[in-house]
């Protein structure tokens, strides 16, 4: 990718001279054009989103107007006439930004008092921050659980709130993004109570329609600045497909060398050559594995080099995270294997190369990660190492899908009743809810409030709704969508806390017999106690990793929209999914060879969510030459591949969605394939799939048809998490079936119009207090229980 020249501008006249001087002292003589334009909008009182590439100076675009305003506020009698709240999706990013703000504002003296307020902040510092801090950096979780419920203690801060900065706002998508949208509405409501109306300044990676996404997130009109005027060094971008091995997987399928092993080799080679590199990997376990393999390989070359590679992921203790960040900043570390906890904006300048082990799920994330290399304007290398799955294989063979396509739209749904209900309770606990507040929280409120009253969570008194319980309303929901208390991973022999795992992922990641990695050490899970939220582990060195398998059944609760696809039909609506982790596979390290399968006895979990599904008729099956013997395998193969390809069309992850295919579904009475959101009430992914169904299923058919294997492999129709052991699957049948289905597909514009005309239900089917935490599977045979995400 060729280098790009930068375009300079001048700061607006209204920026204080002291701030311009401080910026110059930091070595920045003139702003880029997009920085100056964003600062102008901020000073005009207009909310604005800056959506430009990595290392384009987005932070300075909002910092300059913020610092200028804080300097004005410092002249007030109380010394705090203006305050700013900064929100980051991760603690690491907030800590890094706090460092940057303090360095930049150092010449301004005590006028700017920046401080991080999160779960790691010592209690003795918190009171000082509430009383005197005027630039407070936190995360949405702390805002939701700590700041908003205690708003009287923050009254002087909120009264003077001029700006709310939302960094890396493209990460607020799906259920997490929907929760954050409601937290921001609660913040705006409390600010109004204290007489403040803050301007929102958002920073985003390059995104499609950033102002539309920002408006959905904040509930306010937002201007956009998306013309990137910063210079860029040349970026060499390699697409790397691991070679086939002599091993065979399930059903004799050919197996490629794993992306983890290839990325570890690349990180080792780069470290030996003194190239400062980061290898991004999607899972915590993958980050640990790449780090361990690299360290072992480096020790064979030079023992001292092994200490210069480490892993960085979520779930570490705060002091471990801070030490790694410092080592990376100082150059003590040459190579790092990291999850996306490091992807977000932390300034690690001087990187020469980025290795991406597996497509990160969205083009936005891909460019965000690739952009970490060459941050100081020099040339850089980025390598995308493909995993053995349909989406990665499709992308390395169709580079135009990466390089010639715009990044995805951010998908979020603040009106999801499962998201909205607990935030209405939290808002009522902060200040009684009045009719005037309902416009702020959206049209779904009206139907939900009577249900919350019936559940004895809220009570109507005169003109307002009040929270009635003793417990904290903010504890009703985990805004990360984890659904429940995190499971603590504890070393059995010592009682030492190693870290935590989300409750929703516990059944599939820390079940009995699972391999758990932490800081390069390998542990085996001895027991999982979901009641006490504890997994006991002991150190071990098994020659394998583990992968959980599950089964899924599904029933249709309500069809919102239905359109004909030839004789078949494409539908969107509400479903109930019952999922159960039933076993786990042991796979040999490096090669991925399956060593065996062990049964598990874990309870089923029930989920009400949104789904897209399609049906085919007898006539269509005849035209596709699909007889009853291959029907199940053809549907199953099409379902697996369609789930693998959906992240290309919606900002989701393969693990955010699930699917089921059934030769005769009891609700549709036809062969049916379902793809559903893996979160209560939905996350907007299935709706996006419905809107883009023709393009999505065309790419799915193309991915299966172009794969070189004979009967199916992980690169096309096999799934790593299939509860049926990838049986039955019929590759050629899936291609013929999708060909016939797509012959009847309407243009996508028509699909959009149909869905616009549909009447979504907008609420749960029954009062909240009647919703069971876990209920028996829906009636009817479970057909092809296939892919399911970790249960929420």
UniProtKB/TrEMBL annotation:
GO-annotated biological processes: interstrand cross-link repair; nucleotide-excision repair
Keywords: ATP-binding, Helicase, Hydrolase, Nucleotide-binding
Domain Helicase C-terminal: 266-418
Superkingdom of source: Bacteria
Molecular function terms, GO-annotated: 3'-5' DNA helicase activity; ATP binding; nucleic acid binding
Coiled-coil region: none
tRNA-binding recorded as keyword: no
Domain Helicase ATP-binding intervals: 39-225
Entry keyword annotation includes ATP-binding: yes
InterPro entries: DEAD/DEAH_box_helicase_dom, Helicase_ATP-bd, Helicase_C-like, Helicase_put_actinobac, HRQ1_WHD, MZB, P-loop_NTPase
Pfam families listed in its UniProt record: DEAD (PF00270), Helicase_C (PF00271), MZB (PF09369), WHD_HRQ1 (PF22982)
Region (Disordered) location: 744-792
PANTHER family given in the database record: ATP-DEPENDENT HELICASE HRQ1 (PTHR47957)
Protein's UniProt name: DEAD/DEAH box helicase domain-containing protein
Organism for this UniProt entry: Streptomyces violarus
């Amino acid at each position: 990718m060729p280098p790009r020249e930068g375009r300079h501008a001048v700061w607006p006249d209204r920026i204080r001279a002291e701030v311009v001087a401080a910026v110059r002292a930091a070595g920045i003589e003139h702003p880029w054009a997009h920085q100056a334009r964003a600062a102008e909008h901020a000073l005009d009182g207009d909310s604005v989103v800056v959506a430009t590439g990595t290392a384009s100076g987005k932070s300075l675009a909002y910092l300059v107007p913020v610092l200028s305003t804080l300097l004005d506020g410092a002249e007030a009698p109380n010394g705090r006439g203006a305050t700013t709240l900064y929100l980051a999706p991760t603690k690491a990013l907030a800590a890094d930004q706090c460092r940057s703000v303090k360095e930049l504002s150092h010449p301004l003296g005590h006028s700017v008092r920046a401080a991080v307020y999160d779960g790691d902040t010592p209690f003795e510092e918190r009171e000082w921050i509430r009383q005197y801090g005027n630039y407070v950096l936190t995360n949405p979780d702390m805002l939701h659980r700590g700041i908003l419920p205690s708003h009287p203690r923050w009254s002087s801060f909120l009264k003077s709130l001029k700006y709310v900065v939302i960094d890396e706002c493209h990460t607020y998508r799906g259920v997490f993004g929907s929760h954050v949208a409601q937290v921001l509405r609660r913040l705006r409501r409390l600010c109004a109570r204290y007489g403040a109306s803050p301007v929102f300044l958002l920073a985003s990676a390059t995104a499609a329609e950033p102002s539309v996404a920002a408006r959905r997130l904040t509930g306010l009109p937002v201007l956009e600045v998306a013309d990137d005027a910063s210079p860029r060094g040349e970026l060499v971008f390699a697409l790397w497909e691991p070679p086939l091995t002599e091993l065979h997987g399930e059903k004799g399928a050919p197996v490629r060398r794993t992306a983890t092993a290839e990325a570890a080799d690349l990180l080792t080679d780069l470290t030996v050559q003194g190239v400062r590199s980061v290898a991004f990997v999607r899972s915590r376990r993958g980050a640990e594995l790449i780090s361990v393999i690299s360290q072992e390989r480096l020790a064979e070359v030079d023992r001292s080099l092994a200490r210069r590679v480490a892993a960085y992921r979520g779930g570490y203790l705060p002091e471990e995270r801070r030490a790694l960040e410092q080592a990376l900043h100082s150059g003590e570390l040459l190579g790092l294997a990291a999850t996306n906890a490091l992807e977000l904006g932390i300034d690690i300048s001087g990187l020469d190369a980025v290795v991406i082990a597996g497509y990160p799920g969205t083009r936005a994330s891909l460019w965000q990660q690739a952009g970490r290399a060459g941050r100081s304007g020099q040339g850089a290398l980025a390598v995308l190492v493909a995993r053995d799955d349909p989406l990665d294989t499709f992308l390395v063979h169709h580079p135009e899908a990466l390089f010639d396509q715009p990044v995805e739209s951010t998908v979020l749904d603040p009106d999801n009743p499962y998201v909205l209900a607990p935030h209405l309770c939290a808002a009522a606990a902060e200040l009684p809810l009045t009719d005037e507040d309902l416009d702020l929280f959206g049209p779904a409120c009206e139907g939900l409030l009577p249900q919350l009253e019936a559940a004895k969570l809220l009570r109507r008194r005169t003109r307002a709704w009040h929270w009635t319980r003793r417990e904290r309303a903010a504890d009703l929901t985990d805004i990360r969508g984890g659904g429940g208390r995190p499971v603590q991973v504890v070393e059995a022999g010592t009682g030492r806390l190693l870290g935590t795992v989300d409750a929703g992922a516990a059944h599939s990641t820390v079940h009995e017999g699972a391999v758990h990695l932490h800081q390069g050490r390998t542990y085996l899970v001895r027991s999982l106690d979901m009641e006490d939220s504890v997994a006991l582990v002991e150190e071990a060195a098994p020659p394998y990793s583990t992968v959980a398998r599950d089964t899924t059944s599904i029933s249709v609760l309500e069809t919102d929209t239905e359109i004909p696809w030839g004789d078949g039909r494409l539908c969107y609506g509400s479903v109930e999914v019952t999922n159960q982790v039933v076993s786990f596979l042991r796979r040999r390290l490096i090669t991925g060879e399956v060593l065996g399968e062990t049964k598990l006895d874990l309870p089923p979990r029930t989920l009400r969510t949104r789904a897209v599904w399609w049906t085919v008729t007898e006539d269509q099956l005849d035209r596709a030459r699909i007889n009853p013997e291959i029907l199940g395998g053809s549907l199953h193969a099409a379902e697996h591949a369609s789930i693998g390809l959906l992240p290309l069309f919606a900002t989701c992850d393969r693990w955010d969605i699930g699917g089921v295919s059934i030769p005769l579904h009891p609700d549709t009475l036809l062969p049916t394939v379902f793809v559903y959101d893996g979160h209560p009430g939905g996350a907007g992914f299935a709706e996006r799939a419905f809107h883009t169904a023709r393009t999505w299923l065309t790419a799915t058919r193309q991915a299966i048809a172009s794969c070189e294997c004979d009967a199916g492999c992980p690169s096309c129709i096999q799934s790593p998490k299939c509860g049926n052991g990838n049986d039955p699957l019929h590759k050629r049948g899936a291609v013929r079936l999708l060909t016939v289905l797509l012959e009847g597909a309407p243009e996508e514009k028509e699909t959009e119009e149909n869905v616009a005309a549909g009447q979504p239900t907008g609420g749960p089917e029954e009062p909240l207090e009647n919703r069971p935490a876990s209920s028996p599977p829906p009636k009817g045979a479970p057909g092809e229980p296939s892919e399911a995400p970790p249960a929420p």
